[in-house]
Amino acid sequence: MSTTIVFIHGSGDSGHIWRLQTAYFGAAHARALDLPGHGQRTDTLPDAATVQDYAHAVHEIITQELQLTRPIIAGHSLGGAIALTMALDYPHELAGLILIGTGARLRVHPTLLDNARQMPQQAQQEITALAVAPEHAATMPSALLQEHNPTKPIMLYRDLAACNIFDVMGRLHNISLPTLIICGSEDQLTPAKYSHYLHTQIAGSELHIIPHAGHYVMREQPEACNHAIETWLSRY
After folding, report:
1. Which of 52, 118, 142, 216 has the most C-beta neighbours closer than 10 Å?
2. In this predicted model, what pLDDT tens digit does every residue of 154-167 receive, in sequence order?
3. For the segment 53-73, what is each residue's pLDDT rounded down to a tens digit?
4. By C-alpha distance, which of 172, 186, 150 is closest to 99?
């Protein structure tokens, strides 16, 4: 593999969520970013940051800090929205897209948004519980929560609010980059129908629905997820 995959996490997470992917593909070929205000990265964005704000920040990190040329952008959930935005804003600077558990529009339930604003810790627990398949409900949510790096209390709300107003459904036909789409068969937060829509609208895209996994498919079924990525990469 000659190009680098840049992995972008979802709402309330950090680059650490991708550790099973970066370990598999190796540091020379895979980098996982912390978004501004997440993990170890200083916040440089306004409290009402949009997906486009995040996309521009990621573009700056890739080009100025990492100095990567034409990477593949892999995004989960909010990270997938960022990847789609980058494909529309910087199409000639990317080599491809990997969209995991995401969609072209990411509406968030008003109650969840309100909880994220007023009770962020409780909201994070609620989201994480919903984000795994039932068979992983006893162990996976607590493990994922223990891995979260501390962030400002407003960060989860900011992420979800950015998702809530994100909508590129009418622009997907403009994406011509090689695209791999992955979704867990039991994803309750970004159901498989979202991925099917991406697949029908992005010409030449490849779709993998992975069984026994929910929204955190890359952690619930890392071998299947990594194999799908590796097989797809072998064609390019």
Report:
1. 216
2. 899 999 999 999 99
3. 999 999 999 999 999 999 999
4. 172
Domains, the chain: 5-233 (3.40.50.1820)
CB crowding 90-109: b at 16 or more within 10 Å, else e: beebbbbbbbbbbbbbbebe
Whole-prediction pTM? 0.97
Please provide the DSSP assignment of 143-208 as one string: HHHHHPPP--THHHHHHHHHHHT-B-GGGGGG--S-EEEEEETT-SSS-HHHHHHHHHHSTT-EEE
Q: CB–CB of 96/236 below 8 Å?
A: yes
Strand partners, 96: 72
Token pair for residue 234? 């072998």
Residues 169-185: pLDDT tens digits?
999 999 999 999 999 99
Name the residue among 82, 78, 76, 71 with its Cα closest to residue 100: 76
Query: What is the number of other CB atoms lying within 10 angstroms of the CB of residue 187?
Result: 28
